[in-house]
Amino acid sequence: MSIRHHPAETTLIAYAAGHLDEALSAIVASHLAVCPRCRGRSRLADGIGGELLDSAEPATLRDDALDAVLARIAGAGPETAEPAPRAGRHGVAAPLGQLLPERLSDIRWRTVGPGIRQARLGETGRDPEGLKLLKIAPGRSVPRHTHRGHEMTLIVSGSYTDELGRFQAGDIADLDGEVDHQPVSDTGEDCICIIATDAPLRFEGWVPRLMQPFVRI
Ligand SMILES: [Zn+2]
């Protein structure tokens, strides 16, 4: 699996500090399971996250936070080799992978727009707040949109391309309210992704905006 797109540094720090909600955390955990580079970065983020938790004001880093972290790492002795978390079903780690059926073809999709289908994760069990599955038919696009909050997309299969590049299995698109994008599924196969949001997407055109209450993507 060649991963090109990773969570932002600030996202890894927020994850380590426990500031991400459940849906966003599940996406980060799944990415960490398949990305050695981010596992390394998250060890550093763990230290910074610890400093954030220790700080009297959680929203701000003390001036000496990074020095304290580096000192802590330097004093930690030889790094113990952590076993890599196992990538689970369809390359998606637990707990998200367990919410996917054994065969992706068993997912019950419903059409929400031209070439776009959506499904609930964990149809038969618990449906986690803020998580959904999206399938984009080859060559089709998701309506252009920005975000009110934090959105993270984990690619499960296929690929799409938008203003930020090409995203394939294991990649994460880590987007905040500043990003305005229009993902287009690459031709050849459906692109299936898991999307976690902490606020609804905001579509640009009036037609998708009208659709939004029904589509709920
Ligand atoms: Zn990564």
UniProtKB/TrEMBL annotation:
CDD domains: cupin_ChrR (cd20301). Residues 104-197 form the ChrR-like cupin domain. It comes from the Bacteria. Pfam families: Cupin_7, zf-HC2. This is Transcriptional regulator. Residues 12-39 form the Putative zinc-finger domain. InterPro entries: Anti-sigma_ChrR (IPR012807), Anti_sigma_zinc_sf (IPR041916), ChrR-like_cupin_dom (IPR025979), RmlC-like_jellyroll (IPR014710), RmlC_Cupin_sf (IPR011051), Znf_put (IPR027383).
